[in-house]
């Protein structure tokens, strides 16, 4: 029984390091409890796998509890399946680091990090929530983001948790943190942009199929009408898919948005959902100018599995799953993640996409001066997902050394500074407009230029190095 309880408790402690509970040191404590269980050299392969799997179940069952509101049948299945990755990581790390607890601890740090990398992209495009990066958004380790993104943060957390020489490891990580804080090739353009984020308000726990899309639109129109010309805003941003029409270009909603754009003499970026035939739809963010022109558009690429498209729809229908909550699948976009605003260019990550570092980086690589995150968390009750999204926006801000403007119809909306500080965060369900001046920036961080691939290759190389060392040591004993 003890062999089951300890890894479960360790995983739960890691989960409790995440928002909304969010005391980041618990991640280190949880991994430190888990580490000796799988470093043990006499453990069987079966027991090692089971221990890693239970650790993953404890971690993800609580960290992913938001998924219950998205797909009740899919939630336990996802927890079980994705936790298998940490079971495999425990086995592979144990095999590679055989005959040496020091080598095993290092190998396990690498394999568990690679397990996280894999779940960020597979299956169904990955589920990069409840990650160790998110857990550290408020910790000093967040300042590793401009150097190596979430992968570097994840490895450092595991390395400290598994480490046999923690003071040496901590000293090296502290040096990296100082470099991340002090060094940045990104600088200000010398221009500020005054932005209004419009949160229309309303109840959470609602689905599009159960709500009146015009009511959502009217709330955001009313909130926008409260913005005064004397506020001198230069850009207004609405959340994701608050306009749901067959075709936006000839809709009454466009006419009403243009009226506000003319009144304020500024572009308005709005989230729209349009029909794409009878069985599909598009989810896009567009820019509406005061003259009525739609000058820029970005269609969401990373779709939410079981939220915006239904994997294995035929099988799930046969099993009686509630696929009617997603009656149509979203069409994935193909264009780069940028919006041309006239006065500048923004990297745009729609909702779910903010959890993927590469999506924001795609826009910054094309000279975006800030990051825009229009989102819609109204389907979820509680604030587990919403608080984790704010943490992810903080990581994207740090990774790219850019301001992030996050706006949601029911919360949370906020500005996040390039140092990861959250400013003017709204309350859930309230109707509110927040106005802030953000610094437009240019240049690219080390992470922005390198991306994730070099760090994944480095992890693989380090595992190969450990394997060679342990194999040589074993051969020398035989001879």
Molecular structure report:
It is a single chain. α4 (74-96) runs antiparallel to α5 and α5 runs antiparallel to α15. The chain starts with a helix and ends with a helix. The chain is built from 15 helices and 14 strands. Strands 1, 2, 3, 4, 5, 6, 7 and 14 form an 8-stranded mixed beta sheet that branches. Helix content is 46%, strand content 16%. The protein is globular and about 75 Å long. The relative contact order is 0.13. The protein is α/β, with parallel strands linked by helices and 479 residues long. The chain has helices spanning 2-16, 25-39, 45-63, 74-96, 101-119, 132-135, 145-162, 166-182, 213-225, 252-264, 313-318, 357-364, 384-400, 446-450, 453-478, and strands at 187-199, 235-237, 243-244, 268-275, 280-288, 294-299, 329-330, 338-340, 345-348, 370-374, 404-407, 414-416, 422-423, 432-442. The mean pLDDT is 92. α12 (357-364) links the parallel β9 (345-348) and β10 (370-374). It folds into 2 domains: 2-184 and 451-478; 188-442, Carbon-nitrogen hydrolase (Nitrilase/N-carbamoyl-D-aminoacid amidohydrolase, 4-Layer Sandwich).
């Amino acid at each position: 029984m003890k062999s089951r309880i300890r890894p479960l408790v360790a995983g739960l402690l890691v989960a409790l390091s995440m928002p909304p509970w969010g005391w980041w040191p618990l991640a280190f404590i949880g991994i430190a409890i888990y580490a000796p269980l799988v470093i043990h050299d006499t453990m069987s392969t079966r027991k090692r796998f089971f221990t890693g799997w239970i650790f993953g179940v404890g971690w993800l069952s609580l960290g992913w509890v938001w998924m219950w509101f998205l797909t009740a049948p899919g939630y336990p299945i996802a927890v079980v399946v994705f936790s298998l990755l940490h079971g495999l990581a425990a086995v592979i790390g144990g095999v590679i680091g055989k005959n040496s607890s020091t080598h095993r601890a290092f190998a396990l740090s690498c394999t568990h990090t690679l397990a996280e990398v894999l779940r960020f992209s597979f299956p169904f495009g990955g589920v990069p929530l409840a990650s160790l990066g998110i857990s550290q958004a408020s910790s000093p380790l967040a300042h590793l983001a401009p150097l190596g993104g979430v992968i570097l943060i994840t490895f450092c957390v595991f390395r400290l948790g598994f480490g046999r020489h923690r003071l040496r490891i901590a000293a090296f990580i502290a040096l990296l943190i100082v470099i991340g804080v002090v060094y940045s090739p990104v600088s200000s353009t010398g221009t500020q942009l005054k932005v209004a984020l419009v949160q229309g308000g309303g109840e959470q726990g609602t689905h599009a199929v159960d709500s009146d899309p015009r009511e959502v639109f009217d709330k955001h129109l009313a909130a926008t009408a409260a913005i005064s010309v004397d506020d001198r805003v230069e850009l207004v941003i609405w959340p994701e898919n608050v306009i749901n029409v067959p075709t936006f270009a000839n809709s009454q909603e466009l006419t009403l948005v243009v009226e506000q754009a003319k009144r304020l003499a500024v572009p308005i970026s709005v989230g729209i959902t349009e029909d794409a035939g009878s069985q599909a739809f598009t989810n896009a963010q567009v820019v509406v100018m005061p003259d009525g022109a739609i000058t820029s558009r970005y269609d969401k690429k990373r779709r939410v599995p079981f939220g915006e498209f239904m994997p294995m729809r035929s099988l799930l229908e046969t099993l009686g799953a509630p696929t009617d909550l997603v009656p149509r699948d979203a069409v994935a976009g193909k264009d780069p993640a940028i919006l041309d605003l006239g006065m500048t260019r923004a990297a745009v990550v729609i909702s779910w996409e903010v959890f993927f570092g590469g999506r924001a980086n795609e826009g910054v690589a094309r000279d975006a001066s800030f990051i825009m995150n229009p989102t819609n968390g109204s389907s979820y009750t509680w604030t587990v997902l919403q608080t984790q999204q704010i943490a992810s926006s903080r990581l994207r801000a740090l990774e790219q050394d850019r301001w992030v403007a996050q706006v949601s119809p029911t919360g949370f909306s906020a500005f996040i500074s390039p140092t990861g500080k959250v400013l003017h965060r709204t309350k859930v369900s309230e109707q509110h407009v927040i106005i802030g001046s953000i610094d437009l920036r240019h240049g690219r961080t080390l992470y922005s230029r390198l991306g994730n691939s070099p760090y994944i290759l480095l992890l693989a190389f380090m595992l190969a190095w450990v394997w060679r060392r342990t194999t040589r040591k074993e051969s020398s004993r035989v001879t």
